[in-house]
């Protein structure tokens, strides 16, 4: 006979007032996106420097391939660590993935040629990909339902704090009066490794997800964590309605074949919806950002040490998007806002591409239009991760995030840096405009799919959006 329990843990987590404890969770775990933004921006900002003889003598295609290696590593890391996060818990994995990242990032600074650089980028990506799966799960399982949308978008949008940091660091380190091109790029890549120990210390205070514990036969431990949060860290929101309980079958395990079967049968429409979002945003971002510096230096003659100054307004637009628009994902609703942000960013990029092809832009006006487009694209991309983490059951949440990240990024993200590296290398504005048009079409297409298949998850408990696989019929 299957052992079962009745639990009100999800309802107790959702009724908590926002407090200092939630801020700790957001900062300690959300730092992942800052690190990712730092990594991607550094390689984008120093891309043209890596072509120089005194550094690594890479070609534009090599820079694009290094970006592809990073994304490929992120895919592998997401699948590997995502599966382990569902099996062994969120907390163990977000320690392991950060350590993995720190070692690989530090090793990147010691690269001596394209092969070692690409290998280090692959392993750095593995750490970041693993972070995505474990930490997106943990954050959504700890944040109250009524603010989950804006909090999740703000956390994902913090990527651009890292991007701004990467832009500043790159500009400073590459300055001939500081370290110059020969050593500056190495110092920029080593920064992530230097920051990691402080982040590890912060994560020590973040508990295991009580939701994960309750379905793995550790309900007493889960209840103790929630009680500690209620008594010492966050007040309960006054609500006259009684707390809802759900009945859980304890200790059920789900393998990879179970996940594939569940996603492709029970959640098939949601799978199509999530894939459209992930593919579009992955291609859109990786196409532009991994070759950002190359576009500025090749077509506008911007000096490599000045690229960081152009990344800053771009990063600001991306950071403001989720912060300004995030509230509306909880009020106007997921479907309306996802469709709007995907559509708006695609159309603005198409306009940018057309004006670029016609020779009507300068480096400054091009950067301004990019910033406007990515104001909406940043909220859109953040909402893709939010959507995937909301729409699938607790027991397979981390692996579901990993699977959709892997397929979406593998389809859209791996191709984009190589393709755009080739387009830029051709020197043809028309060819690059065609690439922009493809990215725009994917975003507008995702907006259309959202209007048909989108799910109204705003304000709803995760267990209402997707019931746990361990849930038994009936509530108490």
Order of helices and strands: EHHHHHHHHHHEHHHHHHHHHHE
- The coarse silhouette is globular
Q: Whole-number average pLDDT?
A: 85
Distance between the termini: 20 Å
Q: List low-pLDDT spans.
A: none
Biggest sheet details: 3 strands, antiparallel
Measured by DSSP, the beta-strand proportion falls in under 5%
Number of helices: 20
Structural class: mainly alpha
Structure characterization notes:
This protein is mainly α. The protein contains 20 helices and 3 strands. It has a 3-stranded antiparallel β-sheet with strand order 1-2-3, with no helix packed on it. Helix 2 (20-45) runs parallel beside helix 6 (148-157), helix 4 packs antiparallel against helix 8 (180-203) and helix 7 packs antiparallel against helix 14. The radius of gyration is 22 Å and the shape is globular. The model has no long low-confidence stretch (mean pLDDT 85).
Give keywords.
3-stranded antiparallel beta sheet, mainly alpha, 74% helix
Would you kindly provide a brief summary of this structure?
This protein is an all-alpha fold. About 75% of the residues lie in helices and about 5% in strands.
Secondary-structure map with pairings?
Layout: E1 4-7, H1 9-14, H2 20-45, H3 60-88, H4 90-108, H5 114-142, H6 148-157, H7 159-174, H8 180-203, H9 210-214, H10 219-232, E2 246-249, H11 256-265, H12 268-289, H13 292-300, H14 307-331, H15 334-357, H16 363-390, H17 397-413, H18 415-426, H19 429-453, H20 462-465, E3 471-475
Antiparallel strand pairs: 1-2, 2-3
């Amino acid at each position: 006979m299957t052992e079962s329990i009745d639990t009100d843990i999800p309802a107790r987590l959702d009724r908590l007032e926002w407090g200092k404890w939630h801020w700790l969770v957001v900062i300690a775990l959300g730092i992942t996106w800052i690190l990712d933004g730092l990594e991607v921006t550094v390689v984008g900002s120093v891309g043209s420097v890596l072509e120089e003889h005194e550094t690594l003598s890479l070609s534009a295609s090599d820079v694009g391939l290094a970006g592809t290696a990073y994304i490929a590593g992120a895919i592998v890391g997401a699948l590997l660590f995502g599966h382990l996060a569902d099996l062994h818990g969120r907390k163990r994995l977000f320690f392991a993935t950060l350590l993995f990242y720190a070692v690989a990032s530090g090793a990147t600074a010691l690269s001596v040629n394209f092969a070692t650089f690409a290998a280090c980028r692959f392993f750095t990506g593995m750490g970041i990909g693993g972070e995505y799966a474990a930490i997106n799960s943990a954050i959504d399982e700890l944040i109250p339902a009524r603010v989950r949308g804006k909090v999740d978008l703000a956390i994902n949008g913090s990527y651009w704090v890292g991007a701004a940091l990467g832009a500043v660091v790159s500009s400073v380190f590459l300055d001939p009066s500081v370290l110059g091109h020969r050593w500056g790029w190495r110092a920029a890549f080593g920064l992530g490794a230097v920051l990691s120990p402080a982040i590890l210390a912060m994560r020590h205070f973040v508990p295991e997800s009580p939701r994960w514990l309750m379905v793995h036969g550790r309900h007493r431990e889960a209840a103790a964590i929630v009680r500690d949060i209620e008594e010492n860290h966050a007040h309960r929101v006054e609500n006259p309605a009684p707390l809802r309980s759900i009945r859980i079958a304890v200790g059920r395990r789900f393998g990879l074949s179970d996940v594939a079967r569940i996603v492709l049968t029970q959640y098939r429409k949601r799978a199509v919806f999530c894939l459209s979002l992930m593919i579009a945003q992955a291609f859109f971002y990786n196409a532009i950002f991994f070759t950002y510096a190359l576009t500025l230096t090749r077509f506008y003659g911007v000096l490599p040490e000045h690229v960081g100054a152009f990344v800053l307004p771009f990063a600001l637009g991306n950071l403001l998007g989720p912060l300004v628009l995030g509230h509306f994902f909880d009020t106007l609703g997921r479907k309306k806002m996802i469709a709007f942000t995907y559509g708006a960013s695609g159309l603005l990029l198409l306009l940018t591409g057309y004006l670029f092809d016609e020779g009507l832009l300068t480096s400054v006006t091009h950067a301004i239009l990019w910033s406007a487009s990515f104001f909406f694209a940043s909220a859109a991309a953040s909402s893709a991760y939010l959507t995937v983490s909301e729409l699938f059951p607790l027991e397979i949440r981390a692996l579901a995030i990993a699977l959709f990240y892997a397929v979406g990024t593998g389809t859209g993200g791996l191709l984009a840096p190589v393709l755009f590296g080739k387009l830029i290398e051709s020197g043809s504005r028309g060819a690059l405009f065609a690439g922009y048009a493809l990215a725009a079409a994917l975003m507008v297409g995702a907006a259309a799919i959202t209007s048909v298949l989108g799910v109204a998850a705003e304000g709803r408990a995760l267990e209402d959006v997707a019931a746990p696989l361990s849930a038994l019929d009936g509530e108490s």
